[in-house]
């Protein structure tokens, strides 16, 4: 403006301009005191001495913690999804294992057919003979009703025996899930030997058993444990094909180990198992039989491990092999740790 006046421009023609390059500032405390809203302040006004919120003071920390929480939530969600998939896979494996176990039991039907025939022939034959005797007593004059009543009692008893045989066989071949509960192993071993006795007689094999009396209950599923025992007994009898009849023996032994577990061994006097085969004997589809599927021992191992037990095999040299499995006592989910007695 001074330069224009000195250059001769009339002062009245020089406009007066008021300009300030400063930044307007106000005291936040004064605003609060006089109840002045911040919306009434001019643009770009700076409010001094205003307290900062936690977000403004620690924004970077909040963002960092939020990011960590989000990452953790994603990780947990992924783990939950993975856990659900694992549970689904385990359920599918359990279902397939149950189906395989059922198929294995059904495959035993041919081997147990002779046992079923033998066990049913006895009570059915007794029923027939009693019925013929009852006809004779009824034809007498007067009929001997006391003898007829005794014969009817015998028929009822023999009929129950035949029904029990059918029920045992039916329970063995029914499809069912593994259910753990108190199990009488002595009765199970004796019942299994009765089942295989006719087949053993045809093969000229002697079955021996060592079952201590008055044993407490074990923990297990009767059908599945019996399936394992029958499979081991049939395998032992198959191993005696090349052995002279005088040496064809299978020994089933039930013992109680010091920690409280139950140990069942099945020993044969066959040709034994070579060391190169012994390492793979429980693998699926591995078999030493020309017509075998290689699933019996694999399924047996799965069943025993599902009971919380263990199963293994050791060779007796040139005198056959011994298969051993242990089960926990009643009320225990797994076998108790401890040294196992040697088996000869």
CA-based shape: elongated
Which parts are unreliable, with pLDDT below 50 for 5 consecutive residues or more?
A: 339-344
Quickly give the CATH architecture of the largest domain: 2-Layer Sandwich
Number of helices: 10
The structural class is alpha/beta
Give the class-level CATH name of the largest domain. Answer: Alpha Beta
Mean pLDDT: 80
Sheet having the most strands: 5 strands, mixed
* Helical coverage, percent range: 40-55%
CATH fold-level assignment of the largest domain: Heat Shock Protein 90
How are the strands of the biggest sheet laid out side by side?
A: 4-6-7-9-8
**Subunit arrangement of the protein:** single chain
Cα-to-Cα separation, first versus last residue: 124 Å
- Cα-atom radius of gyration: 44 Å
**Please, how many domains?**
3
Number of strands: 9
Percent of residues in beta strands: 5-15%
